[in-house]
Amino acid sequence: MSQFRLHLDLQLFAGEKSEPATPKKRQESRKKGQVAKSMDLPAAFILFFVFLSFYLFGGFMKDKLVHVFRHIYQSELLMDVSTGNVLVLFSSLAVECLILLAPIMLFAMIIAVLGNYLQIGVMFTGEPLMMKFNKINPIEGFKRLFSMRVVVDFLKSMLKMSIIGYVVYTTLWGRKEEILKMGHLPLEAAFKFIASITLQLGIKIGLILIVLALFDFMYQKYEFEKSIKMSKQDIKDEHKKSDGDPLIKGKIREQQRRMAMQRMMQEVPKADVVITNPTHYAVALKYDAGNMQAPVVIAKGSDYMALKIKEVAKQHKIMTMENKPLARAIYAQVEMGESIPADLFQAVAEVLAYVYKVKGRTK
C-alpha cells in the first residue's frame, strides 16, 4: 500500500509544472506570438520622446506655423472665393500641416518600433490573428473578467492615475502664481507659458510612465515564464519526440545496416583478393594500377559478415588467402573506401603478386 502511495505521489510530482521551459518550448511559443511584452512600454516611450522632440523641433514648428498664418493673412485673406481657389488653398494648407507634423510623426513611429523591438526583437507571425472560438465563449470570457490579470491591470491603472494626478497637481500648484497672472500677460507670453508648462508635464509624466512600464514588463516576463513552465513529464515527452521513438530509430538503423551490407556485397565481386583470419575477419582488396596509387579496401567484416564476404567471393571465383596478422591489421586500421597505409604496402604487395601469378597476369 505504501509503495502504491509513493508511486502515486511521484506521478503527481511529475505532472507539476515546476521546470523552466526548454528552448524548443520557447520557440514554439514565439511562433504562436506568445512572448513577454508590455503594451505600456511603447506608449510610454512615445509620450516621453514626442514631448522631448518638441524641444528639438519646437523652433522649426514655430517658424513654420508663423509662416503659414502670415501667408494666409498677407496673401490669401482677400482672394476671390471660388471652388478652384478654395481647393488650392486647402491643398496648400494640408501640405504645410504635413510638413509641420512629419518630424513628430516620424519620431513617434521610430520610437514605437524600437519600443517593441527592445522587448521581443524581430517577430513575424499570423497566429494571434487566427480565429479562436474560445475567445468568444461566454464562460471563458467570464473567467477572464474575474481573473487575476484583470485585477492586476486595474491596480496598475489606479496606480498610474494616482501618480500622474499627484504630479500634475504639484506642478500646477507650484506655479499657481504665474497661472493667476496669466490673464494680464500678452498673448505671445501666455502661449509661451502654456507651452512650457505643457512640455514640463509631458516630460515628467512620460518619465513616470516609462518607470512604471519597466516594472510592468518585468511582471509580464514573470507571468510569461510562469505560463510556459513545463512538468518533468513534458520535458521527457519533448526529448522523446526530438530524438524519435527508440523502436523506430532501431528499425531505421537496422535498415541502414542492411542497405550498407547490400552495397558492400555488391562490391566484393570487383575485388582482386579476399584476405581472411580465416574465421573471424575478411577483407576484400581491389587494385587498379592505372587509377589507384595503392590498393583500396572495398569490403570488410567480422564473424557473420566475414563469412558472407567469403561466400560471395567463392561464388564469383575471387581468390581467398589466409593471412591472420594482415587481415587483422587491415580490418583495424583501414575503413571501406580507404587506401592501404604505407606500413602495409609490402605485405599487401606480396599477396597481390602471388594472386596475379596464380591468375597468370601481372600489373
TrEMBL record:
Membrane topology: Multi-pass membrane protein
Superkingdom of origin: Bacteria
Presence of keyword Transmembrane: yes
UniProt keyword annotations, A-Z: Bacterial flagellum biogenesis, Bacterial flagellum protein export, Cell membrane, Cell projection, Cilium, Flagellum, Membrane, Protein transport, Transmembrane, Transmembrane helix, Transport
Signal peptide: none
rRNA processing as UniProt keyword: no
Major place of residence: membrane
Transmembrane segments: 41-57, 77-95, 101-125, 146-169, 189-219
Location relative to the cell: Cell membrane
PANTHER family in the record: FLAGELLAR BIOSYNTHETIC PROTEIN FLHB
Function field: Required for formation of the rod structure in the basal body of the flagellar apparatus. Together with FliI and FliH, may constitute the export apparatus of flagellin.
Family membership: Belongs to the type III secretion exporter family.
The protein's name in its UniProt record: Flagellar biosynthetic protein FlhB
Species this chain originates from: Paenibacillus eucommiae
Gene giving rise to this polypeptide: flhB
